[in-house]
Amino acid sequence: MLLREVRPWGGPAADVLLRDGVIAEIRPHAAGAGGQRSQVDTVDGAGRLLVPALVDAHVHLDSNRLGLPFREHTAGTADAPATLAQLIGNDRAHWREDPPVAERAATAIGLALARGCTRFRSYAQVDTDCRLERLEGVLAAAQQFAGRAEVTVIAFPQAGVITDPGVADLLAAALQAGAGIIGGIDPCGLDRDPAGQLDVVFSLAQRHQVPVDIHLHERGTLGAFSMELIAERTKSLGMAGQVTISHAFALGASNDDATVGRLVELLTDNDIAVATVAPAGTGTLPLRRLTDAGVRVGLGQDGMRDYWSPYGDADLLDRTWQLAFTQNYRADALIDYALAVASIGGRSVLDPQAPRLGGVHDRPGLAVGDPAELLVIDGDSVTAAVMDRSGDRTVLHRGRVVADGLALVGRRYRTGH
Ligand SMILES: [Zn+2]
C-alpha cells in the first residue's frame, strides 16, 4: 500500500510505503512518479496530513446509546447533581430498555473507527445485576470488528467489589470469558475498604496474569492515599508497566504542588500509566508535567451519550480538541501535542513497550518500522485539523484502509487503478 502525497505530522509532502502492517519506507513526494502504481494499492493523500491513528484508552462501549433517540438525563437535576450511587442506580434501572449491548457497542466501534480510532480499551460493567451480560456484548462487538480494529475489554466492577458481594467471583469468570484487564473503582469512596478492594483486584490480576485499570475519581488527600496503595501493590507484586489509573483526579488542583510532585514520582517509579477523559475543573491533569516525567498518558471518550452523561460522540478528535481546550493550550506545538497524546500516548498506555511521548515537542509514531495504524486527514496543519475536524479522513489499520470519508469500507478497498 502506498500513501501518496501525505504530510507526516504536517511536514513536507511524502510518499509512504506500507508493508506487512508497518511503515516500510518514507520518501519525499515525487510528483508524477507512477511507476509503482500498477503494483501496489494507492491512497491518494492529495496533500492531506498523516498522523498516527487515534487510540481510545478509556471508553465504556457497554453503556453508550449512540444512534438511539436522545434521552433526558434522569440521574439528578439542575439543582441537585447526582451522586455516584444515583448514577449507578439510574443506569441499573434503565439499561435493559435499550437494544442489546453487542449491537450498541458495535455501533460505537464503527462510528469511532470511521473517525480515526483503531484501538480501544473498553470497560464492561460486571456486577450482580448484569453479571456477564455486558461483557459478552462488548466481546461480541469486538469479534465483529476483528481485523479492522483492536478492542481490549476490562472487567469493571462499576458498583464496587466489597459493597456488592459476589462480584469477585463474577470478575474471575469475566477474565475466564475473555476480558483482558481487571478493573477497580474508588476503593475508598465507593467500597469504603481500600485494602479490601485492591487486594481482590490485584490478586485476580496475579492469578490471571492480566493488567490492572483503576477508575479513581477520589480527590485531595483521599485520592493521594488510594494512589499510594495502588503504587505499593504495583511495586510489591512486580507489576510495573501493568497498571493504569484512570481519571486520577488527585493529580489535579485538589492537591498542593508538593503532593502532586510526590504522586508523579510514584507513577514514574512504578511505570503506572494514566488515562484521562479531559475534564474541566479540579480534575484537569498536569499533562505536560506527567509526560515530561515519562508517565504514559492516554485519552478516552469515557461513556458516550449514556445514563451517566449526555456527552461523547465517538469522535476522539473532538475529545482531543477538548483536551487542548481544558489545558488552555493555544500554541500550535501544544495542540499538536494534544493529538500526540490521543494517538501515541494512548498506544503507550495499551502497550508499555511502545514508544512514549518524551515531551511536548516529541512526535513519534511515523517512522519506518512503526505500525501502519494511521489517519490521513485534511487540514492546513495538525492544529488546524484539531480545530476544524474535517470529515475528509482515511483510516488505516495494519496497513489497510478500513474507513474513508467517515464511512467504513470493505476489506478489498483499492484505489489508483
Ligand atoms: Zn470511565
From TrEMBL:
Residue ranges of every copy of the Amidohydrolase domain listed in the record: 155-402
Gene3D superfamilies attached to this UniProt entry: Metal-dependent hydrolases (3.20.20.140), Urease, subunit C, domain 1 (2.30.40.10)
GO molecular-function term, one example from the UniProt record: hydrolase activity, acting on carbon-nitrogen (but not peptide) bonds, in cyclic amidines
Pfam family name, one: Amidohydro_3
Signal sequence, renumbered to the chain: none
Lyase in keyword set: no
Claim: Isomerase is one of the keywords in the record: no
Keywords on record: Hydrolase
Classification via PANTHER family: BLL3847 PROTEIN (PTHR32027:SF9), CYTOSINE DEAMINASE (PTHR32027)
This protein's name: Amidohydrolase family protein
Lineage per the UniProt record: Bacteria, Bacillati, Actinomycetota, Actinomycetes, Nakamurellales
